[in-house]
Amino acid sequence: MPRSARVPQVHKFGGASLANAEAMAHAVTIVLAHRPGPIVVVVSALAGVTDALLDIAAKAARGDGRGLRSAAAALRRRHIEIARALFTGARRKELIACVDEAFEELKPLGGAPAMLREMTPRTTDYLLARGERLSARLFAAALEQTGCPVEYVPAVNLIKTDDTFGHASADLARTERAVRKTLGRLLARGVVAVVPGFVGATPDGQIATLGRGGSDLTATLLARALRAREVSLWKDVPGVLTADPKVVPDARVVPQLHVREAAELAYYGAKVLHPRALIPLVKRNIAVRIRPFANPASQGTEISQRRTLQAYPVKAISAIPGQALLTVTGNGMLGVPGVAARTFAAVQQAGISVSLISQASSEHSICFSVPAASAARARASLRETFRSEIERREIDSVEVRAGVVAIAIVGLGMAETPGIAARAFSALADAGINVVAIAQGSSELNLSIVVDGRNGAAAQRAVHAAFQLNKIDGGAVGPRRTDIVLLGLGHIGRALGAMIAQTRLDGVALRVVGVIDRSGFVFDAGGLSARRLAILAAAKKRGAPLAKAGQHGTASQAIAFMAGHALSNPVLVDVTAEDTAEVIVAAFAAGMHVVLANKRPLTGPKRVYDAIAAAAAAHGRQLRFEATVGAGLPIIDTYHKLAESGDRVSRIEACPSGTLGHLFGELGRGRRFSEALRGAIAKGYPEPDPRDDLSGMDVARKALILGRLLGFRGELDDIEVESLVPKQARGIPLKAFLERLDEWDDAWLERVEAARARGGVLRYRAVATRRRIRVGLVVVDASSPLASLNGTDNQFIFTTMRYKKNPLVITGPGAGPAVTAGGILNDVLKLTSG
Ligand code: ADP
Ligand code: ASP
Ligand code: MG
Fold first, then answer.
1. Which candidate in 44, 421, 519, 829 could, as Cys together with 15 as Cys, close a disulfide (CB 3.0–4.6 Å)?
2. At what angle do helices 375-385 and 339-349 cross, to 10 degrees?
3. Does 271 contact ligand 1 (Cβ within 6 A)?
4. Quick one: average pLDDT of 109-113?
5. Which residues, chain by chain, have CB under 5 Å from ion ligand 3?
6. With pLDDT > 70 as the criterion, what percentage of the chain qualifies?
7. In DSSP terms, which residues pair with 452 in a beta bridge?
8. pLDDT(711) > 90
9. Distances (CA, A) of 630 to 626, 672, 814
10. Tens digits of residue pLDDT in 423-468
11. Alpha carbons 765 and 779: distance in angstroms, whole number
12. What are the strands, taking DSSP E only, across 72-220?
């Protein structure tokens, strides 16, 4: 056997993974796949068993004999069921006897309440140990029946601890000796050792547990003693995630973490790893792998001495909920040595652990957090310690602020990257979250921020987004979701809703979660169906505002409300025709991407345009606006592709109005102006007041959007626009205008004739360059691509460095709800890929 094959491997199966017989069998196949090298298997109690045993201990302490007996019976049944499902014959009998024996021992607890009311940590540990003992027994038998040589090794023979019952610390040297003596020969013979996790033996041989989640520690202790190179911790998650997936749905797997980063996360509440599990690995070159039980082929997360992912100064965040902040304040603390030491000694004496400390440089106050349940005791202990200082008014007060959450932002790269704290704080400020306290360890590996409990989840999401942790490429937790919020609900919004319902994408789920109008909004984090959207749109058409079906509020309030929920990759889609710049900036600040079909925000003052772009950049969000110029045609996309590939676009010429295109097509065919316009209105092409199209302003806005891409620095007013609305028709009511349409027929006939006489056709055209934008009526030569335009088609002609003599032409339908919704959908899809 090559040497590397003789290096022992340690595999630990967590309780969450071992839920039933099927899961147990799956764990067996994982172990078999790693044979024939030497293997040690550590198992946790079956899912939920430790909690159930703790409940039994509580019942015993209360003297609740009846409750205890029924809880114990249920737990026994669970184990027996698994034994029955996995085994037959003699082996089944043997295991059932083993389960019975474990529960037999519980009987006296229920029988003699008075005596057993004292459930000391020692007796509790004794009780708890049977959870892992039974699962290890079951596991060893299940592995053995495949023909694999196996031995069950009691944890007390291997793991040596101190006598802190409930959270014992391991004695590394004694453990190492015991492990080598007991397991060395076994492994050399090719026998797989199966060891219960979580427990060890005190110096006088009593059973003690290592603290909740302690099986992780058992595994790393064994790995250290055996000089293993790798420990696999099989869990119900795909690896260590950038955040708790229950709070941040965008959380991603971190492919690799440095040991110090992982330790920091574990200490600060990331429940995925026991806080002390990494201690045995200090100065040993042993990698820990957090691996997905459901997908053994996946790499999960490697925790090792390597430093990777340098592009991410922050790699993950974690949170400790249910904290209270204590602040000791007073002038008497200034420059007085030992106040801090006495403060923490007082807390320690009360047996309370402090998770975060911050002291203002003025030394006027010391502030630290403890579990909320211990806050009152900590305060009493402090008041006692500083009794005389308080009497002398040197210390003003010991204040408690309960209900706070400590959020840890962790990453080794933070030390070398300036501005991390600023980025975190501005993300929180933008999300409207107040920071109660902060602390940064001197290692600069962890920035801790305390916020009010109410804001805990939103704060984690804001920080996660600010550091773009959803881009770390270890894979997503589930199928990726993109949540869309619609601003405006008309034809386009409805078409989009229907289109989304029909979009089937591999690994990406799209849904509309909210709709906003002027009155308020409707929101459902679970998604609004196409049917629901159609009903809302129909109601709106009948004049019922959204607030009637949902809530009142401004668009910015709606965005703040929605951002407070666990949205995944949120995108605001603006299909209004209003000045929504402010809302868009608020959406960026709330961590949303923005897709526009609305031209207004991009065609207002240049200052506003720049502010929108700056807000997107500041929050690392994207602004996409394909649908603003050519509906579904790839115009902006083409521009970017050319620019990215090093080409330079010098000029864009376009007929970007479906309405005017249709009109001039009809005029060219000899139709009268009034007839042609009425026909267009009947088909629903123009704006409600067709003069908005005839005035050229719509084309001018499109031209301005294109011009600004090319670097045009001017305003809408700087565009030379030729209006097609006759002077007499400007200012009169719409109705009067429509009635008087015939009056202008003759003038139009003349124009069309004159163009024809010159061998050309009339077109309403925009030309944009970096310096100048013009919009107006021209006669184009019959040979020009513009002359061939048909119906409502649009055309865009790019003149670039590469496409100079023969420009690049894009032609196609450029108006209507369906193609516009298609353009929006394309933009949204670009945002789902990362
Ligand atoms: P085990 O089954 O080994 O005991 P745990 O239950 O201790 O596993 O750890 C996995 C759990 O940790 C997950 O179910 C998940 O909810 C939680 N968790 C919290 N933070 C994270 C994180 N950053 N990455 C992965 N899981 C996390
Ligand atoms: N079974 C113990 C617990 O639930 C230990 C472990 O799972 O690691 O805390
Ligand atoms: Mg655990």
1. 44
2. 130
3. yes
4. 60
5. 213
6. 96
7. 404
8. yes
9. 7, 27, 5
10. 899 889 888 899 988 887 666 789 999 999 999 999 999 999 999 9
11. 10
12. 150-152, 192-196, 199-201, 207-209
The residue count of the chain comes to: 834
Residue 567 confidence (pLDDT): 77
Distance from C-alpha of 362 to C-alpha of 53, rounded to nearest angstrom: 49
CA dist list (Å): 651 to 261, 342, 637, 770, 772: 52, 74, 16, 8, 10
Ligand 1 atom, smallest distance to 13 CA: 3
Active-site residue, from 160, 702, 805, 830: 702
pLDDT score for 572 = 97
CA 770 – CA 105 distance, rounded (Å): 86
How remote is the CA of residue 533 from the centroid of ligand 2, in Å? 46
| pLDDT tops 60 at residue 112 | no
Average of pLDDT values for 279-294?
92
What 3-state class would DSSP assign to 1?
Answer: coil
- CA 347 to each of CA 151, 161, 322, 343, 416: distance values in angstroms, whole numbers, following the listed order: 46, 25, 17, 7, 34
The predicted pLDDT at position 480 comes to 67
pLDDT of residue 722: 94
Substitution candidate for ligand 1 out of 237, 273, 315, 464 with most atoms within 8 A of CB = 237
d(CA 352, CA 370): 7
Whether residue 38 is predicted with pLDDT greater than 60 in this model: the reply is yes
Query: Residue 4: its pLDDT value, please?
Result: 47
Of residues 179, 171, 175, 238, the one with CA closest to residue 38: 179
Rounded to an integer, the average pLDDT of 550-565 is: 88
Question: Which one is predicted more confidently, 815 or 86?
Answer: 86
- One-letter amino acid at 597 equals A
Q: What is the pLDDT of residue 265?
A: 92
* Structure token pair of residue 594: 């923005």
Identify the pLDDT of residue 16. Answer: 85
Q: Which residue has the tokens 């904290």?
A: 323
Choice between 6 and 347, residue whose per-residue pLDDT is larger: 347
- 702 as an active site residue: the answer is yes
What is the whole-number distance in angstroms between the Cα of residue 222 and the centre of ligand 1?
A: 21
Laid out side by side, the sheet with 808-813 consists of: 720-721, 773-781, 760-768, 649-655, 793-800, 808-813
User: Is residue 712 within 8 Å of residue 769, measured between CB atoms?
Assistant: yes
Which atom of ligand 1 is least distant from the CA of 47? 2
Mean pLDDT is lowest, of 334-338, 414-418, 786-790, for: 334-338
- Longest Cα separation, the chain: 114
pTM above 0.85, yes or no: no
**Pocket flag, ligand 2, residue 44 (CB < 6 Å):** yes
Q: Are strands 593-596 and 623-624 parallel, antiparallel or unpaired?
A: parallel
| Helix or strand holding residue 226 (H, E) | helix 215-226
CA proximity to 196, closest of 23, 92, 46, 27? 46
CA distance 171 to 133: 21
Residue 571 CA: distances (Å) to CA of 17, 215, 245, 513, 593: 35, 42, 20, 10, 5
DSSP letters spanning 245-307: TTT-TT-BB-SEEEHHHHHHHHHTT-TTS-TTTTGGGTTS--EEEEEETT-TTS--EEEES--
Q: What is the distance in A from the centroid of ligand 3 to the CA of 217? A: 10
> Among candidates 558, 553, 579, 554, which has minimal Cα distance to 570?
558
> In the chain, helix, strand, coil percent, each to 5?
45, 20, 35
Assess whether pLDDT exceeds 90 at residue 125.
Answer: yes
- In the block, residue with structure tokens 């196949």: 29
Q: Closest residue (by CA) to atom 11 of ligand 1?
A: 272
pLDDT-derived band at 142 (thresholds 50, 70, 90) equals: very high
Which residue's C-alpha comes closest to atom 2 of ligand 2? Answer: 213
